[in-house]
Amino acid sequence: MKTVLITAAAGDTGRPAVANLLKKGFHVRALVRKDDDRAQKLRDLGAEVMIGDMASLRDMRIAMNGVQMAYFCYPVQEGLVENAVIFAQAAKEAQLELIVNMSHKQSRPHARSKATQNHWLSEQIFEWSGIPFVHLRVTFFAEWLLYISSQIRYGRYLMPYNKEGRFAPLAAADTGAIIAGIMENPAPYAGKALPLHGPVEYSHEELAAEVGRVLGKPLPYEHVTVSVFLEAFGLQDQTAMRKHFEAVTIDQQEGLLAGTDDTGRAILGRPLTTVEEFINQHRSAFELSYA
C-alpha cells in the first residue's frame, strides 16, 4: 500500500482527491492548517490527518516521511514560490516517486499575473528537483458558481470578466478524481503539463444563461470591475487576489483560458460533470430558503 500526501486536503480539490485515493486503496496523509470539522471529516473517511504549515521545512519533512507521492496545491496569495522550494526539498529528501502540481491553464514565464508567473516558476522548481512530476494546468473551476452563489440567489450573476471570454468549467470533484487517477497510473502522464478543462465551453454570458435555465430564473450577465466584484464578497482587502483577477481579465480577452480536451475523461473513464449536473448537486446553495 502506497502512502500519498495531499496538501490543502480540506479544500475543493484536496477533499475529493483524498476520498478517491482511499477508495483505490492508498494510505492518505491529509495535510491541513487547523484541526476543525473539515479535518474530522477527513479522519472519518479514513485519512491520516496532519496539522502542519507548508512554509515550514520541518513540518514538510515530517509530512513526507514514508510518503511515495504527493499533491501540491497553494492558494492565490503570496508565498507560492518559497513554499514550492520547501516542498521540493522535502520531496527530494524523501525520494518521492511523483509530485502532482496544481498550476494555472495560462502558466507561462511572461504572465501578467504574479500568481500565474509564480505557478510557472513552481513548475520549474519541481522539474529541477529531478522528481517525476505532473503539472495540472486547469482552467476556471465550476466552483466559481458557488463563490457567487450568494448573488445568484437574488437573481444577480456578476463577474469581473468580459462577457465574451470563453472557458469550459471543470468541477473540483472531477479534478480530485483526476489527481487520484494519475497517482494510480502515473506512467502515461509523468513529465507532462496537462491542460484540463470541463466538458463544454461557454462564454461568460452563455454560462449565466445556462445557470439561469437550470435554476428556472433569468440571470442576465453583469460585468463589474474587479474592485466592485471583491467588495461584493467582502474581499476588498485581498491585494494579491485583486492583482491576479485584474491580470486574468486580459488573459480571458486573449483566449488563454479557453478550450476543451479529453484528458480528464480518459483518466476517469467517464464523462466529466456538466454545468447542469453541478448546479443540481449544489442546488441548495443557489436557491433561497424560507421558513
Automatic annotation (TrEMBL):
Q: Enumerate the UniProt keywords alphabetically.
A: NADP
What are the residue boundaries of the NmrA-like domain, all occurrences included?
A: 2-249
Describe the family membership recorded for this protein in Swiss-Prot or TrEMBL: Belongs to the NmrA-type oxidoreductase family.
What the entry lists under Gene3D superfamilies is as follows: NAD(P)-binding Rossmann-like Domain (3.40.50.720), UDP-galactose 4-epimerase, domain 1 (3.90.25.10)
What's the protein here called? NmrA family NAD(P)-binding protein
**A Pfam match:** NmrA
Signal peptide feature range:
none
Species: Duganella aceris
